Every structure is written in C-alpha cells, then in structure tokens.
Amino acid sequence: MPIPDSFPCLMVRREGGGEPTLGVEEIGLDDLPAGDVVIEVAASSLNYKDALACRAHPGVVRDLPHVPGIDCAGTVAESGSSDYAAGDAVLVTGYALGAPAWGGWSRYVRVPAEWVVPLPAGLTVDEAMTLGTAGFTAAQCVAAIDKHGVQPGDGEVVVTGATGGVGVLAVAILAKLGYRVTAVTGKADRHEMLRNLGAEEIVGREAVDDRSDNPMLRERWAAAVDTVGGNTLATIVRGTRHRGCVTACGLVGGDTLPLSVYPFILRGVGLLGIDSAKCPRGPREFVWRQLSGPWKPEGLDQLRREADFRTLPGEVEAMLAGGALGRLVVRPVAG
Fold first, then answer.
1. What is the pLDDT of residues 76-114, one digit of tens each?
2. Which terminus of the chain faces fewer neighbouring Cβ atoms within 10 Å, N or C?
3. Nearest 5°: phi and psi at 304?
C-alpha cells in the first residue's frame, strides 16, 4: 500500500518553557529523519528509556519535538537499500532509534539500513516486540554469563528487578536453559507469575541491599542479571562466588557503585556491562537467532499487555512511578 500523506505518532513537546507533554499528532513522510528504509510499524514497546524520553531527559533526548520508541517491528514500505525490499518483515532495536533520533511510536519510521534486522522466522511481530529491547538486553546478559563459563549446574543465578521488562525475560530465558533462578522483587502479588516463569526462589529487595562495610559477603551467586544498579549491584558483586559473573544493565537504583576491589582480585568476579544500543551487528543477529529458537521463552503471550497511542501516556506515568509490570506492546493507532 502507498504511504499516506499523513499518519499518527506520539510526540513529546514543551511549550513556553513548561513541562514536556505527550500527545498524538499527524506527521508526514517528509517529517521523518533521513534513512534508507521506511518501515510501516505494526508494533513497538514501552521501555524505561522511552519513559525518560517522554520527560525530555537530557541524557536521552537532545531536541524537542521528539518521537520516543527505542524499538519497532513491521514491514518495509520503501527501501533504497539492496538488502531490503518492500514487504520484508523486519525489526529495529537500539542504535539511535528513539534516543536521540525519532523512534517507533509512529505509524511509519525511516532508518538507516544498517539498523534493520530481518524478523527471524521463529518470531511473529507481536512476539518480537514482547521481547523487544528488554528481551534483547536480557538475552545479551545470558550470552555473557554463558561466555564467562557459568553453567546451569554451577549454582544460583540472581535476577533483580524481576517483574520489569528485562527481569521477567531474563528469568524466563535462564529457567528455560536450566539455570536455577532466584528472582528479586518487592511486589508480593507477582510471585506466582515469577514461579510460572521458572524462578525457583523469590526474595525481597532487602536480600540484595546490604549496607554494611564488609568488602565481601558470603558467597552465594554463581551469576547475576542486575537491572537496578547502585547498592543492589554492589551487594550482588560482594556476594558472588569465586569466578562468578555479574551482568549490569540498569541504573534505576543509582548510578554509583560503592565497592572495593576485593571481589575482583580475591574472588575473580567478573562485572560485565551490557550495552544494547550499540551492540555490533554480528552479536546482535546471534542474539535474535537465539531468541527465535532455543532461548525463546515459553508463554510470551502471557507476558504481553497492550496499549495504543490513546492509553500509552498513562502507562508511561505508571512506569516512572515504579508500577510497570512485564512487557507492554504498543499499537500505532490515532487518538
């Protein structure tokens, strides 16, 4: 189908120096950033970085107006690249999509061809965005743990922020691969969900928030997926076993790390940062192949909630208030 003269998006604006506002607007193809491939978006998702973009966070958004959405999936509408043709099913996660470039909360996006990944045969569009950037990040953590040499029989793997997007999917992927998962959450009403995903133990946030001066704690974790940062990350590093591995991919709990070097030089603990936006193409395609095959979590449909452009602003506020649960897929429809 031809691209219409106008189509809806969710736009962040600031009028007269006031607070940023998020609303549905009509834009046209000429308004989109330059790029080789135009994608008709079937679905996007809501991530914490998107919520920050809605508040015009200076570390995420350079200029207003701005269209958030750090991932999307759909079909190619137009292509100036020999790698893609109209009708191809594709997805985009990371790079500059949604931060700082305009993102996937639009009926159409235009991006450089190198940002585009063919939709793997084992995933539907809905499954791809149920995974989205969160699933891609979780799978990178799992890949890093595996590459470090931590195997399912080596001991517990702890996942913090276990009811959020990355945490939920990390629990599901690790459990499917046979790891013994301990999920950390402050939401008592989500314990059953986490057990259904495969968590063998569920603990409160206080279990990974040690405020003592001890440079190391009792060895417990063989590996970790930390989505929180701050003292939570420091506590986990101090309690990780000899030659264990901690992956770090979030900072909602703080961007400083109160640690000594003892866990690293006495226990050989590995601390690995996970960067999804600039992940090179080779590892990127490997992760998506795994997610569409042996690492694909069971019951993705049960993890998915949906919103459209009319209901998404309320979901953004809930996420910023710490009330987000699971994965939210975004449908690009007008208000």
1. 999 999 999 999 999 999 999 999 999 999 999 999 999
2. N
3. -95, 130
